[in-house]
Amino acid sequence: RAKRAGRNTFAFFNHSMNTEARRTLTLEHDLRHSLEQGELHLHYQPQVDLSSGQIIGMEALLRWQHPIDGNIPPDEFIPIAEETGMILPIGRWVLEQACQTAARIRRLYTRPFRMAVNLSARQFEDSELILQVDQILADTGLPGNYLELEITESLLVNNFGHINDILRQLRRRGITIAVDDFGTGYSSLNYLKKLEVNQLKIDRSFVQDIPGDRDDVAITSTIILMARQLGLDVIAEGIETEQQQQFLLQQGCRTGQGFYFSRPVPFSQLQQRWSHGT
Ligand code: C2E
Ligand code: MG
Ligand code: MG
Ligand code: MG
């Protein structure tokens, strides 16, 4: 019996592997055409002042509407885009779209805000990055201080000198640099101190179970304290409840993002909320 179960398990495992591999191949192929076919678009998630609820910025999040499979989550297709190099044209398109949107909002509303865009390591290692950013800011007329770029800790462990040089160039343009998913990677505190970054984004896995989980309470409050000591801004992601919002505020975290305030939405919906002043 054990043997048969084992064999069945093996057969099933094999089968699912094939299916998964096949899906990856299909997605890889389809992703190449997604841009020109107009299947990609951006959603925007507000970032708010935790005490007033006012929108102070937004994060652009990529969406892929596949013609057959429907909505494919970024956690599934971004890694494929990174492996194939497709992230370079796609990432450029994201930056253009997000800056266009930001420039539009800036013309409509007087309040200051920042548009946050995720940047993958491949884009960051691309020697054209600075040139690209300059072109896009010039074309859209968006001042650099309206743009925020989110990078991950994994980027920061290699080639520190080079990375920091690029960060410095971006900072000179007024661009804010945020470390996304902070706490999940391996960046040493020593690096962090020397890095040209402005903001830490507390990963949502730590926010999820506060204030109930003692470990997560310890982690979030330590990150907030450390950010303050290092002179960095801090934002919490994945806030889903009022309790989480209150707790973070008490710990000294003044900005946040999460379903409690809004899910990522198309620009038209963001505009509605924005014009209602919250
Ligand atoms: P991220 O940059 O950490 O983005 C935050 C993710 O958390 C988003 O998932 C967002 O929808 C989700 N989220 C926000 N608030 C909540 C909440 O309260 N509860 C829960 N459960 N989730 C929340 P999304 O849009 O699926 O994106 C996943 C990841 O894909 C992003 O994580 C980012 O790493 C990557 N990604 C998305 N767009 C881009 C892009 O344009 N370029 C690159 N390189 N990566 C992107
Ligand atoms: Mg992000
Ligand atoms: Mg994140
Ligand atoms: Mg993430």
UniProtKB/TrEMBL annotation:
Highest taxon, organism lineage: Bacteria
Ranges where the EAL domain occurs: 24-278
Protein name, entry field: cyclic-guanylate-specific phosphodiesterase
Parent-record interval covered: 405 to 682 of 682
